[in-house]
Amino acid sequence: MIHLSVPVSDIHLQHKLRQSRSWVLARIARVIGKAAKSHPKISLGMEDASRAAPSLVLEVARCAEQHGALRVRFADTVGILDPFKTFHAIAAIRVAVDLEIEIHSHDDLGLATANTLAALSAGATHASTTVNGLGERAGNAALEEVVMGTRHLLRRDTGIDATALRDISSLVERASGRAISFNKSIVGRDVFTHESGIHTDGLSKHPTTYEGFDPAELGRQRSSILSKHSGSQSVRDACDALGVTVSERLVPQLLARIRSFATQYKQAPGTTDLHRFLTQARGIRVKVS
């Protein structure tokens, strides 16, 4: 596909190009018409469409369709839309033309993924995304978020293998030198790690109590950590992981030691620490180096 882009907002036309709206339409007719004669797949990008007059956006889309474009791309270039305005803008284009519609969202207000999903709900057929949400300024809609959001909120399959998302995220993280946060949605290191007592207790009874979707969809596994927020079930799970059966009367003692350790050292106790707690709880004093 050949993608051609033109500004459509008055801000860009007046201050960047010093041209009129009529110039835009004439330019589209000439350039798209010429390109379509030699290539069957032409896409027209409407730069800064989110700040353009809605009437001009529809005129541009119709002009592009009339002269042979296959797709129009609606760009929220400075990331100022919300999902509601995005939905209405894309729905209007959907009614006006019989073209593929692509949404291109920026994340300046943290709404790129939400706006992308709103556009898809309104009739957009394609979405611009980037791995880990990289891009100009605050970045663009994140591939991994759009894939999983489309699957679980819109009930549609993108055709993308979700189990590969963590690996490609890690690859781009290394190549770009831009580390992702440990709690980055979908691909962050700790997004399936549970800490508080009520969470781990609920998960032990049924995973859906505190997970909106199965981490196995991403080829990942849930885990739990011991902390000052841990509950009795976390203690039982930790002992089971060590291959140790602990009596119920010892659980409160172990829990108290775990919470004290996590509060004092600001980290989860390790395997050695847990073995020490078990020994001490059973009344056997050991020397701790």
Question: How does this model look, in words?
Answer:
With 289 residues, the protein is of the alpha/beta class. The protein folds into two domains: 2-128, Alpha-Beta Barrel (TIM Barrel), CATH 3.20.20; 193-281, no CATH class. Helix content is 45%, strand content 10%. It has eleven helices and seven strands. The protein has helices at 10-17, 21-38, 54-66, 83-96, 112-122, 143-152, 165-176, 197-205, 232-241, 251-265, 271-281; strands at 2-7, 42-47, 71-76, 100-105, 126-127, 193-194, 223-224. The strands form two sheets. The chain has a five-stranded parallel sheet. It has a two-stranded parallel sheet with strand order 6-7. Helix 2 (21-38) packs parallel to helix 3 (54-66) and helix 3 (54-66) runs parallel beside helix 4 (83-96). The longest helix is centred in the first third of the chain and has 18 residues, at 21-38. The protein is elongated, with a radius of gyration of 27 Å. The model is unreliable at 284-289 (pLDDT under 50).
- Which percent range fits the helix content? 40-55%
Rg, alpha carbons: 27 Å
Main sheet: strand order: 1-2-3-4-5
Number of strands: 7
At the first level of CATH, the class of the largest domain is: Alpha Beta
Query: Which structural class best describes the helix and strand composition?
Result: alpha/beta
Identify the CATH architecture of the largest domain. Answer: Alpha-Beta Barrel
- The geometry reads as elongated
Give the distance, in angstroms, between the N- and C-terminal Cα atoms: 66 Å
List low-pLDDT spans: 284-289
Percent of residues in beta strands:
5-15%
Query: H/E series, N to C?
Result: EHHEHEHEHEHHEHEHHH
Any idea how many domains?
Answer: 2
CATH superfamily of the largest domain: Aldolase class I
Summarize model confidence as the mean pLDDT: 87
Major β-sheet annotation? 5 strands, parallel
Task: Count helical runs.
Answer: 11
CATH topology of the largest domain: TIM Barrel
